[in-house]
Specification:
The chain is of the alpha+beta class. 54% of the residues lie in helices and 16% in strands. Strands 16, 17, 18, 19, 20, 21, 22 and 23 form an eight-stranded mixed sheet that branches.
């Protein structure tokens, strides 16, 4: 039959079926005519024709198998038949669909997150060729910003990159925007002229920077984000060429960036890098520039690392005082944008796949039980001429409906929980907000969900075929229940496999929950309750660091706030607690042995007001803290924390010690230590307290800390009014409680622990359903055996113990098999754990005991039913 005829048959199925019937009848009639011609009686001639021709229905199916139209018609009939069968067994159907929906829904939701954050192409040209380039130092964890001179040296000496661009988010990070009579603090980013061309970004309006913009004495220009364009300017398309005031300086808006791009830095206003202050541009001490590079064609990351290592070694020889032991770290851009979410996402993805496997095993067990119940029906159909292929298509139709319904319900479930996941991941430090907001059910994710449905349908459709009877006489024997040792072993093996997978998820969830419990029990070193923080950045050049005008502003503000009801104390610092200060200094201890150039130690430095320590609740260990006269006299004094005292002043009296600053200059400044305070875990509660230096004073940027005896959120309005009284155009921003800061600092650990805890609970639920289903069916199949046992003297307790022994055996086998896999998986989870071993005995014990209890509880109802069997009725029914 030609392809054209096969296609045309799709549209004339009824006529084609009639033609096949007519042709079959014609063959039978011709055979009858031959028989009559040979002298057979009419009845015998017809019977012989039918016997020689074979089963007409089977013949029709063979013809249909070779014709597209009839194959589709046959499969459509199978689907309708499967739907009717499933409708007649609502308990089985609902259980299977819900089980698959939970597994597929959880997998689809987590894969949506993994795809958006780890797999989907970034919105940049050849994003996989873009890398971040940071400097490393032995005393500083990870990589960090580079100095402006190092950045310019890298650009001139490198040979591995098409382009190298820089950007800066400091000095200051925010500026004051005055627009339409009101002021608001906005985020500013300084970027080199080739920054946007390196990323391959085309503005939605206007242009980005050109080389002339990034030169001294160039006009002040700015490129704004799409969000800022909509929020502050109402998406006005005539914004290009208009002037805005930022920190009392006029800037011309020359472009608007496209929406939704995951930029390496979050900024409302982008300005040329040449606007960085001259001191930072000339200093090899101040690290203020982040660097990106686009690899040349044919150059891989390893070659670029070798090239940059050579340049770093060259700079170390040329500038030993600042560049000795300084290395270079090259990282793909995506890793910077994802931050610390990658290991957490991979762990979640692995666990949710295990949950899906448990769901599949559960449904597989249900299908095996259903196949056993319909064993005689299948045997009858085979006896009537149905081929194994025909039976397979009917099984596939049934499992396809189950999987499609389960997949559809699971996809709806995933769509419901994705907003919750976006909200949770948005609080994780380091994750790019635009990438997090891009988490959605898009086409690749839906294709994966569909693939999972089709794969499980095919797999489940094959299972009953392995269970179908090989010898029809046994299946058709009266009284046979379809039970055999092999079939029972298969169901038991699936239950044990289900338990083995469940204990892996349960153990991993227990580890992360235990880790998170330890984290939240850590004392950060200060009271986080009833403590409000907010930030102020005074506009330059009207205000400068450590000047009379700046001091007067903050002193007047503190005085107003301390007289406000509900506020007990007010302090200022230059960084929000539980966050790095981004201000580090090289130093020496006066009188200590001299060090080699570049070997000077580092410490974080924080500028604070006199009441800072009281407001934070940091205890005074020795000496005194700062007083108002220290601010007024612009005194150079240090208060150090205990970590600094223990590491650098061990064996000395800290109150008679002095610290040398400006150690790279010929005449360092000698600053006395006047006090020692308790430690605060300012780099996060998961890290030990680092050495810190406290100096008295106010900068243009300040974090205001307010200790209250009422709800701290309720005083935000009073603070705004107090600031407005001093300067009507001065905004405040980042208003948050320190409890919220602490919660956000633990967001990744919390999200991971909560999700894995949910997956563990889901795994337990599915495992209990699987155990219940198998044991209940086993009890039903062993009705006669149990009746015989009770007839010869077994009591109800013996029967209950018999059932529970079977459950315990299956569960124990699964636990022993799963523990080995759990310990292997826990090794890959070790980077997410805090002070918890990946072979934590408490987590192992809790997981084992929980699964045993769940297994026993799942078997209680079948065991009770087994104990109530009447032996007389059980034997009579057989």
């Amino acid at each position: 039959m030609s392809l054209l005829n096969r296609v045309s048959n799709l549209f004339r199925r009824a006529r084609l079926a009639q033609e096949i019937d007519d042709e079959l009848q014609s063959h039978i009639e011709m055979r009858m005519s031959d028989n009559l011609a040979s002298g057979m009686p009419p009845d015998q001639a017809r019977r012989d024709a039918l016997l020689r021709f074979g089963n007409p229905t089977l013949t029709k199916e063979r013809v249909a198998a070779s014709d597209a139209a009839l194959t589709l018609e046959s499969f459509w009939m199978d689907l309708r038949y499967a739907f009717r069968r499933l409708a007649k067994a609502p308990g089985f159907s609902i259980t299977a669909v819900l089980t698959l929906a939970l597994g597929i829904g959880a997998t689809t939701a987590i894969f949506s997150c993994a795809y958006a954050l780890l797999l989907r192409s970034l919105p940049f040209r050849q994003a996989d060729r873009i890398v971040t380039i940071n400097e490393t130092h032995p005393q500083v964890a990870g990589g960090g910003e580079v100095t402006f001179p190092d950045y310019t040296d890298w650009r001139s000496q490198q040979s591995s990159f098409e382009q190298m661009a820089g950007y800066s988010i400091v000095s200051p990070e925010t500026v004051s925007l005055v627009w339409d009579g009101h002021a608001e603090q906005v985020h500013r980013v300084l970027a080199s002229s080739n920054f946007f061309s390196l990323l391959g970004i085309t503005p939605s309006l206007g242009r980005t920077f050109v080389e002339q913009d990034d030169t001294p004495r160039a006009n002040h220009v700015a490129v704004i984000s799409a969000e800022a364009w909509q929020r502050y300017f109402g998406a006005d398309k005539s914004i290009i060429g208009r002037t805005v005031d930022l920190n009392d300086v006029s800037y011309i808006i020359v472009g608007v960036l496209p929406a939704g791009s995951a930029y390496p830095a979050t900024g409302d206003f982008w300005m040329p890098l040449s606007l960085m202050d001259k001191e930072s541009q000339a200093s090899r001490v101040w690290h203020t520039v982040n660097v990106l590079g686009r690899l040349k064609p044919g150059v891989d990351l390893g070659q670029a690392r070798a090239d940059m290592a050579t340049i770093s070694a060259r700079l170390s020889q040329s500038y030993p005082a600042t560049n000795r032991n300084v290395g270079v770290l090259l990282t793909p851009l995506r890793e910077q944008l994802v931050g610390s979410l990658r290991p957490a996402l991979l762990s979640l993805m692995g666990c949710v796949v295990l949950v899906l496997l448990i769901a599949c095993v559960n449904v597989a067990n249900l299908l095996l039980v259903r196949a056993s119940a319909h064993r005689r029906e299948t045997a009858v159909r085979q006896a009537l001429g149905a081929s194994r292929l025909r039976l397979l298509t009917q099984y596939l139709a049934e499992t396809l409906l189950l999987c499609l319904f389960g997949g559809l319900l699971g996809t709806m479930f995933a769509e419901l929980i994705l907003p919750l996941l976006r909200t949770a991941f948005a609080h994780v430090t380091g994750a790019d907000p635009s990438l997090v907001q891009s988490i959605r059910l898009d086409l690749p994710v839906l294709l994966v969900a569909l693939s999972v449905c089709l794969f499980t349908a095919i797999f489940f459709g094959l299972l009953p075929m392995f269970h179908s009877p090989r010898r029809l006489s046994e299946a058709l024997r009266s009284g046979d229940r379809g039970s055999s040792g092999t079939q029972s072993w298969r169901r038991g093996a699936l239950v044990s496999a289900e338990v083995a997978i469940a204990i892996v998820v349960l153990f991993l969830g227990s580890l992360l929950v235990r880790s998170f419990q330890k984290l939240i029990q850590i004392d950060p070193g200060f009271r986080t309750d009833h403590l409000l923080s907010l930030e102020i950045t005074l506009p330059q050049p009207r205000y400068q660091d450590q000047t009379t005008a700046t001091n007067h502003f903050y002193e007047a503000l503190i005085d107003k706030l301390q007289r406000s009801p509900g506020i007990t104390s007010v302090g200022t610092t230059n960084a929000v607690p539980l966050n790095a200060s981004h201000s580090m200094t090289r130093f020496l201890i006066a009188g200590a042995a001299p060090l080699a150039p570049g070997a000077f130690p580092f410490a974080q430095i924080r500028f604070v007001s006199p009441d800072f320590f009281r407001t934070m609740g940091l205890g005074l260990v020795q000496g005194r803290t700062f007083e108002q006269k220290d601010i007024e006299n612009n005194a150079s004094l240090f208060v150090v924390n205990q970590a600094f005292d223990e590491r650098y002043l061990s064996g000395r009296d800290p109150l008679t010690s002095s610290i040398l600053l400006g150690v790279l200059s010929p005449h360092p400044d000698k600053v006395p230590v006047i006090g020692v305070v308790s430690n605060a875990r300012d780099l996060g509660v998961e890290t030990d307290a680092e050495p810190e230096l406290y100096l008295p004073g106010f900068g243009t940027h300040a974090v205001i800390l307010l200790r209250t005896n009422i709800d701290p959120d309720s005083i935000a309005g009073d603070v705004r009014n107090a600031v407005r009284q001093l300067d009507p155009n001065q905004p405040i921003y980042h208003v948050q409680t320190i409890d919220e800061v602490l919660s956000d600092s633990l967001a990744r650990q919390k999200v991971t622990a909560v999700l894995l805890g949910i997956f563990a609970l889901l795994a337990l639920t599915l495992a209990s359903i699987g155990i219940y289903g198998v044991i209940a069916y086993s009890v039903e199949q062993r009705t006669r055996e149990i009746g015989v046992r009770m007839a010869v003297g077994a009591n109800r307790t013996n029967i209950v113990l018999l059932v529970l022994r079977e459950v315990t055996t299956l569960t124990a086998i699964g636990i022993l098999a799963g523990l080995a896999g759990a310990l292997v998986c826990a090794h890959f989870l070790s980077t997410l754990l805090y002070h918890v071993s990946n072979v934590d005995p408490l987590s192992i014990g809790a997981s084992v005991v929980t699964l045993l209890i769940v297994g026993m509880l799942a078997a209680v109802v079948p065991a009770a039913q087994a104990s109530t069997i009447n032996p007389t009725e059980a034997l009579r029914s057989e």
